[in-house]
Write the C-alpha cells for this entry.
Amino acid sequence: MSRTKTKVSRLWVELMGLVLSGVLFLPQSVGAGPASDKSEPEAWSFLPWDDYAGRIEGVEADSEGPKAFAVKPNGGVFVLDQVNSRVIELDSTGLFLRTLELPGRTFDDIEQYEGWAILALDRLVEKSLLVLDVNGVYLTEIDLEGRGVEHAGYITALLPRSDGVWLEVSHRYSVKVLDHNLQPCERRILLGRPAGRGQSLHGALNGRGGAEIWKDLRNARSATVREVFYGPIPIRRIVWLEEGRDDLVYVMFHEALFSPVEPYGVEEESYRIMVLDEDLYELYRIESPWVLTAYDQRVEFRVGPYGRIWQMAFTPEGVLFLRWNWRR
C-alpha cells in the first residue's frame, strides 16, 4: 500500500472513532446516510496532528496549530499549516491533495481569490500580503502598512471581494489594497466590512450580553437596518461576520457563562451560528460545541459555495473540518 493510502486510511480510522462516539455524522459521500437533522454537521475531513497538520506545544509561548483556512469555489479547502511553512490542499471530498510551500512560518491568515489565487497574510513579521497562484507560484507581494493601516498588527480580517482585496482594521473599518486583478491600487477606506449594494456590514458587542449587527450605506454613519441579538447565555465574542454571495448574512457568536466564584472558570459555552436575510431577520440557527482551544487560531469559520458553513475545530487527535449544509 502506498504511503498516501496509508495516511488516508489512518485519517479515516481517527475520524470513525469520533463518529462511533456519537458526536459526529459522516456525509453521504463517504458511505453514511444523511445527518438525522440538518443542524448536525458533516465531519467533512480530519487531519491527524504531526502526520498531516503541524503543531507547537507552547510552554512559554502560545501553542499553535493551523491558523486559518480558505474554501475554494469547487468545495475544496486550503489549510494554512504555518508550522510547516506550507499550505495543505484538500480536494472537494476532503482528501489530501498536495502541499504548497510558503517562504516562512510567520503567516497567520489565508484566503483564496476567485479560484485562481491564494492570499497569505503576515501581519507581525514581514508585514506583507503575499499573492500566489493556485499552484504556489509567486505573483506579487505588497507591504501592509500605509494609508489606512498604521500598524499591520491591527489588521483583524482578510476580505476578498469581487472588486479586489480589503483588509479590516481594528474591527472598525476596511482598506482596499488590491484591485480585481490583484494588483496594488489606490487605497480606499470605508467603515465596517464591504457588503453588496453599496453597503457596509458592522457588528459589535453591546456590553449587556448581546450583540448588534447593522448595515449602512458606505460611510453614511446611519444604519439602514439594525438588529440586536441575545442568546440563552451571554455573547462574549463575534467569531465571524460575513455577507455571502447569496446576499445573506452569516454570523457566529461565542456564548459563554462564567462561574461567579473563583477561579471564575467557564461553566458553559458554545458557538451559535446564525443565518440572516438582507434585513437581518433570522432564517436559521445552528449550535456547535467545538469552541476555541489553547491553540492559537485566527480563522475558525468560513462560508463556502451554496452558503455552506465550514468550521475548522481542534481536537486532541487532530484538526477536524465540519460542514453544515443548512439548506438541505
